[in-house]
Amino acid sequence: MTKSFKKQATIITIILILALMSSCSDLRKNQALKKEPLNLTQGLYISNATIISTEDGHYNPYIGHLVIEKDKIVYIDKNEPSISGTFDQIDATGKFIIPGLIDSHVHIADVQGMLDHHIKKYPELVKEFNSQMPRSYLYYGFTTIINLGGISDERINSFNIQPLKPDLYHIGYSGATIANGYPMIYTPEEFRFEMEPNFIYMDSQAQNIPDKYNPSDHTPKAVVKRIKKSGAIAVKSYYESGFGRMSNLPLPTKNIMNELLNESHANGLVLTVHANSLAGHSFLADVGVDILAHGLWNWEKYKDVPTDSLPLEIKETLDLQIQKQIGYTPTLTVIAGEEALVDTKFINQPPLKKVVPKNLLEWYKTEEAQWFAKDLFSESNAEEVHKIYGNVQAHAMLVLKYLSDNNGRILFGTDTPSGPIYTNQPGYNGYWELKLMKKAEVPLHKILASATINNAKAFHLDSSLGSLAIGKKANILMMTKNPLIDIEAYDAIEKIMIGGQIIKREDVAVKE
Ligand SMILES: [Zn+2]
Question: Is residue 460 a part of any domain in this protein?
Fold first, then answer.
């Protein structure tokens, strides 16, 4: 053995020892992690899944293991857990798991396509719809929905007693609407104030508010206090001057909106505001509200500009929203849903059979159910409707792409249904919205974040929802495709887990 060879051998030995030492310390670390075996009483062990979850919008998928005890995640890691006790196991080899989806803008008190007189006339259809509706949200992976319209305790209870349903959050009995403004103006005068108990008193409306209402009960402070008391997680308000026959509606002042914002925050609530016009988005960006409940598609004086570039004024409004990190809810299916009313093929799409009860689907095809389409489009043919809506949607998508490209805070929300229309169906509408976001060129990882962690953070639900992490509620989807690669993954859901309960997708579809 030569000297130099000996030296080399010594170096190699040292390197080997070092390598061994470091792998030993890895081993010890792992053992330290494993040292406390999880003793489960009502457990579920999901092994070898591709885990797709984020806390900050960056994704690093990995193959790993997740353990649920009762309704919570108790373990998530690359390494196998050490578990004992009572538990089921799912081998998720080749499958993808993500947190359950959150739709932050729905209206569950409505029946798609029906007005009050239809609801009274067809109680059986209404009953079938209401028992399927929560399941239809689950069918498309929505394990949490946030109701952004007024809702009664009775309606919340009737939803919550359903055996299979998403988690429901809400904004209380009514939004903080301006007296006689949008949307309360649509309720006949004799019921209007009772139906919207959280209206805001404005002196300019004093003549048109019944005397029995005391202005001091209808200040932003009093209204937000009532909303908080009703168990709401957010305050909904509106900036909408109206459309068609109902235009020039009273609007909130900056003072009112500022007070609503401050009172919401003082009560731990989030302020989300309806607006889809440039005037509305610019007003609300200026105030710095928390969330815009719709996208900016009503470009007003710019409505006829080409669909491939943003007017400076719109860009400046969006830049302010980005700078203040205001939540932006695209709700592209509002436009697509209205447009689809002239599309005779819409109602015959096979996937609708999975989420809409058969008798209701048949009713939608009747002359009686086509009332809204006729009302809305009495003066235009299908071709004209597509041209008008195509232009509006192109503008909406251009805005969304700009926000996506420039670090805007995008929140997934559909506004299901946006009006008395049958084209925004529970669950299916969410899947449609996801695809429209993709069409607007939002990258897939941003789409997923918008429907999970972004919504959870924006609505202060992230201590229990929005990601896969120890301590969080076990709302999980198992998919056969990767949602970071293929938008169709959202239609390739195999199992839905809600609070640890495992549901096979077919089990929440409409029963044939
Ligand atoms: Zn809405």
Answer: no
